[in-house]
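Morning, I've got a small favour to ask if you have a moment. The fold is given in discrete form, as structure tokens running alongside the sequence. I'd be grateful if you could look everything over and explain what you see. No rush at all, and the record is pasted right below.
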Amino acid sequence: MQHPTPTPTRQTIMRLAVASACACFALSAQAQQAAAEPQAAPAEATPVPTPTPAPAPGPAAEVAQENVVTVSGSRIAARGFTQPTPTTSLGADDLAKTAKPNLFNAIAELPALQGSTGRTTSTNSTSSGVQGLSSLSLRGLGAIRTLTLLDGQRVVGANVTGVTDVSQFPQLLIKRVDVVTGGASASYGSDAIGGVVNFITDKKFEGFKANVEGGMTKYHDDKNGSLQAAWGKAFLDDRLHVTASAEYGREKGIESPGFGEVGPNGRNWYKNPAFQVRPLSQTNDGKPQYTAIEHAQQYQYSKFGLITSGPLQGTAFGANGQPYKFNYGSNGVPTGTGAVTNCVNPFCVGGDLSGSVGAGTNLAMDLTRQVAYTRVGFDLSPDHEIYFTANYGKVKSEFSPNPGAAKNANLTIQCDNPYLPASIAAACAANNITSFQYGTANAVFPQNINVHPTREMKRVVVGANGKFQLGGKEWSYDTYAEHGVNRTDIIVHDMTLNARYNAAIDAVRAPDGSIVCRNAVAAAAGCRPFNIIGDVPVDQAAWRYIAPENGPQQHTRQTQDVASINFNGEAFSSWAGPIAIATGAEYRREHYKVTGDPYGNGIFADSPNTADYPADPLLNNTVGNNWYAGNYHNAQGTYNVKEAYVELNVPVLKSATWGEANVNLADRHTKYSTSGNVESWKLGASWKTGLDGWRLRAVTSKDVRAPNLSELYAAQVVVNNIVQSQGNTVAIQQRTVGNTRLRPEIARNTIVGIVLSQPSWAPGFSASIDYFDIKVDGVISALTAQQEVDLCAAGNQEICGAVSLNNPVATNNFVTVQAFNLASLRSKGYDLEGSYRMNLKDWGLPGRLTLRALVTRNISFLTDPGVVGTIPSEGAGANLGTTPRWKGLASQSWDTDKYSLTLSQRWISKGVYSNEYIECQTDCPVSTIIHPTIADNKMKGAFYVDLGGSYKFSDKLTGFFKIDNIGDVNPAPAPQTNLSFGINPQLYDVLGRVYRAGMRYNF
């Protein structure tokens, strides 16, 4: 489905530019009238010291440059401006101290960053689209609600949700990263609900510098290394500035150990955690429904095959297909009905764990980064610069989501299958059966599924900036045009086709004694019989029949075009100081096209490379969905955005007794081609009180997130399903597709804080506490077919448009499964920051000591699905998610001119599996879907200690080392209702102790 939108025209861009310029000039005219009046002396910006050893600076992260303060939480750049939105800034020295091979890892450790995705997340997924994507998330609201910028400019998305890949950014030229922990849509536009992360490059860097580093874990895996170099030089009497950088990095990942309860390379903490879940109907006995267990054993399959029901239930197969009695855990005994005594479907505890697949997921992906960046700036005059930047980033990753391809008791084996041992064929005859149910982990497969995502970004920016005099006042401007292209290719190898697998395992002996596929149509189309009875040699021809070399593929091309113009200046002055204004306009166009392979997508006429995917009578050539996993579908879509904004800083108080105060206001009008007009705004204030070092700040804002390309234009996927309607079971076509009627999410963001910054009675000390309350309405969320039917029955007419159940012909009944603006989110909590810096010379010791701590306390993270039969769920402190009650980061650094040492601590508080569970061991209430009962609802926290240091061999050469997770603290078990993973890498360190060392050269 595609809704084409017009490309930007010169007239469109000029109208936006003129509109913002007129606003600027109108205020300048007022300034002319006030020019003859006495002007209050502007308050000089007091730069906050940037302590080199800390992971983050103090609470007031403001950077002074030539008496003008620039902060990413605002578009205002003015002398004396103190913005009300909390911002944490990490300087180049701070980032270097972390010694991370990827800056993403350093930033994601900040307490406010929760729910970020990196190379240790989504490694158990084939089709999530975020594999190998390093994206940042603030407040647990998701990367789609966190705006990530490069030099204040948008970057083309690295997947169809529009989020950027930080791994594609130039890292050696980053001089500062600002993390704005508050709504910033009025200043920066859509997606800034959780806040903004702005990477700022050193545009005037001169000289040459290089980094080389390497490392590995305690377990001698995830070996990594990186090489970075940057160069800059001024020419033509300092009018031409050229900077360039190139980087190569490789993190080799942690490979799957295969099957069984064995962690990779000696990690003994993996113990198959899972939930045993009793049926609701049995919870009237006073016992809990949920029990968290370890050493969970699936009894619906074994490593090389298990008969799962009937008189032969409990017969497993081993070497050369020989049968043996399967060892169920929990002293379980098969009943012949598919159940096992003393076990809770589908788990026993202990027994034969050799077929477990949970530990088979890679702990970390093999990731390779190749990044190049250049900026060329030319000063037309001392006040005007034109520039050009080019950024190339290629990130390749590789991982295995799971070994084999488990079949949970859903296979039927005929008793005349010639691969069965004679004893089993005889047992079939003796028990008068012709077939039996069968499950297998498919450990016989010669290769594990392996996924290879590659993201390649090419981005160019041309722009100009400078300053000019108007009405006796100095104004600055910046304007740019950007074109970015990101190509994402996901290639999957050793994936099986379901229909071919089913045909190949159903073997029969031909009249000539050979073994062939039973299905004559399949045999005529090239079917080769495949033996899954026990640990037996694999016929390569049969393997390639069920898992062709041309596996699932998805190819995506995304483009982003931006034209932007901004003005900044002090329009006039009041008695309290100059009134500053920032205004501008922007046009943005986003487009994507994704192509899936014919076997996954279906509809061969619309799929390229059909020669590599020949038609097969066994496969669904229309709908697709033929793969075991990784069924990618074609889609494309486009939308454009036109917006203009204005922001004001108005001083309202300047008194020797009462201090200084200012009000910060911003308003942005946006028009989306898909959803129409929307407004965002901000109202904030900052008061530097008359009390020594004390400052108060508060800000409230309306912020927005527009639906992304995937939510709008996701391709239609059709499967058969059933729903319950008016007491009847109705067969339907479930049509999953994007929804072009989606509206922007609307958020209300409120922050109130107190700052103590270097009072005279405690020089070097700063602290702050900020309370935040974020409420998001109209959250875009997908529903199930049944939920849509229920909502329609409850009277929701918007949903009824997607439901059709009144056709007399069953095949004409359908439910279009889409995302809707139904849900809501609310996040409340507070941030604490504190730092103290002292010169040790006063104590007769060399160097400086810096102490710093950052903590986020999540009071509540409430999600309301907005669906009939559900209730809001509380996510704060649910450690299976991304929002623990407490997340902290602290450091203690000793720095001298020659060497430095930094000790840091990362902390996650203990929590629960879910706040909706009722914990009880006896006399439990009857469990419900909304509030299940559980025997133990506690989930451990984690406390990590890191140590780093550096030694300066000369003015140009510095060596450094870093040890992360010195105590080799294990991740807390994260039980699921299956054994697909069993850890939560978005919250816990899953690598263990990591050693890194390297050299830095700076000339």
About this structure: Confidence is low (pLDDT under 50) at residues 1-69. The chain is about 10% helix and 45% strand. Residues 7 and 13 are 11 Å apart (CA to CA).
